[in-house]
Specification:
InterPro entries: AAA_22, ExeA_AAA_ATPase_DNA-bind, P-loop_NTPase. By secondary structure, this protein is of the alpha/beta class. It is about 55% helix and about 10% strand. The strands form three sheets. Strands 2-3-6-1-7 form a five-stranded parallel beta sheet, sandwiched between helices. Strands 4-5 form a two-stranded antiparallel sheet. Strands 8-9 form a two-stranded parallel ribbon. The radius of gyration is 24 Å and the shape is elongated.
Length: about 400
């Protein structure tokens, strides 16, 4: 891999958010200022929007790392088209509260008692709601109602809503959200990075992994990367990862404009990828037995990308398109899995309630608790596998060329 060739401690251009790589562009600096102001108020809503890959999750991760955990308690909800009652349940779960999803009044009471206890202990409470554009109007209204909790004159809960640009439009245009709009005390839309920020952004990430002088970059590449990525950090990461891979395979010490143009054309499927001509040709290694098991090689999932037609490889332009399609399919499958798990959790809660009301059946309750624990473990494991699989497919075409 290119990190070995250039002596990096790890790969600097992962697609998954990592707060340790946080780069303070002009727009991220403004967003952090708004966040700081909003948190100082201790009430209402803070709204941060941006395109997919603009760095919202990285920004919030950076914020979390800066918070004093002795004075702030943070809950987080990643939404999947939640309705009003599901929103209350998920908010409670984000703070570690066990509530019955069918007992809204009980869930609200549990949340209020929790918030009061935190306030008496001198801690603020922040609820972060990601992918807010997926929320129904009813769910947003429930969040507004949660913001009504007070202890005396002191508000007990503050909320940070993260969403894509359509959420910003939703807030501005829907009459039903007028009361929520009035409680937004800080709002910022993450813009794309400017052309002059691409080089500092790339170098920042490289220096984080031990970059010294290899590889060198010719000045013309930065404008080209900005034009292709539109200044969106995740797209910059994707381009740079492919550029460094091809550069390492060709044993380059300098990355120039023709190389970047070639990589971009390959990404867009305009030209077929060609095997590198240099002496550096990394051996294709099979995944370790553990990784192979996690990625499901026994089911043939990974072989699909290498030998889709009985051992005959696809042309590289088609292979690039296939990678994108596979990643999209994987993400869709995991979204459907999230919904399925949510339904199972509801059923478990219902069964647990009936078991408690009908009889003191300790064995049944124990079995339900064990199922719940296995669901939690499965969810963590599948999230990990998703990250590995996306990473695998993003780089698969380049490995095939090797």
């Amino acid at each position: 891999m290119y990190e070995d060739f250039y002596g990096f401690s790890e790969r600097p251009f992962q697609l998954t958010p990592d707060p340790s790589f946080y780069f303070e562009s002009v727009t991220h600096k403004k967003a952090l200022s708004y966040l700081g102001y909003g948190l100082a108020q201790g009430e209402g809503f803070i709204v941060i929007t941006g395109e997919v890959g603009a760095g919202k999750s990285t920004l919030v991760g950076h914020l979390r790392n800066r918070l004093d955990w002795n004075s702030v308690t943070v809950g987080e909800v990643v939404t999947s088209a939640l309705g009003s009652e599901e929103m209350i349940t998920m908010a409670a779960h984000s703070f570690g509260l066990e509530v019955d999803h069918s007992d809204k009044a009980g869930a609200l009471s549990a949340i209020e008692l929790f918030l009061q206890d935190e306030a008496r202990a001198g801690r603020k409470v922040l609820l972060v709601v990601d992918e807010a554009q997926n929320l129904t109007i009813g769910a947003l209204e429930e969040l507004r109602m949660l913001s009504n909790f007070h202890l005396g004159a002191k508000p007990l809960l503050q909320m940070l809503l993260l969403g894509q640009p359509e959420f910003r439009q939703l807030l501005a245009e829907w009459d039903q959200l007028e009361q929520l709009r009035q409680r937004v005390i800080a709002s910022h839309h993450l813009e794309a990075m400017q052309p002059g920020e691409i080089e500092p952004y790339v170098m920042h990430r490289l220096e984080h992994v031990g970059y010294k002088v290899r590889p060198r970059f010719e000045g013309e590449v930065w404008k080209r990367i900005h034009r292709e990525s539109r200044g969106i950090p995740r797209l910059v990461n994707r381009i740079m990862s492919r550029v460094l891979m091809k550069s390492a395979m060709q044993q380059r010490e300098t990355i120039d404009l023709p190389l970047v143009d070639t990589v971009i054309d390959e990404i867009n499927g305009k030209v077929p990828e060609e095997a590198p001509m240099g002496d550096y040709t990394p051996q294709r290694e099979k995944p370790s037995s553990r990784k192979a098991e996690e990625l499901g090689t026994d089911s043939g999932l990974l072989q699909t990308t290498e030998q889709p037609h009985g051992g005959e490889a696809l042309p590289q332009s088609e292979n690039s398109a296939l990678m994108d399609a596979q990643i999209e399919a994987i993400e869709q499958a995991f979204a459907e899995r999230d919904q399925a798990i949510a339904l199972v959790r509801k059923e478990i809660t219902s069964l647990s309630q009936r078991a408690s009301q009908s009889a003191e059946d300790g064995d049944t309750l124990h079995r339900l608790a064990a199922i719940e624990a296995r669901l939690d473990e499965q969810e963590r494991s599948l999230r990990h596998v998703l990250t590995m699989m996306i990473d695998y497919f993003e780089n698969s075409a380049t490995r095939n060329a090797a």
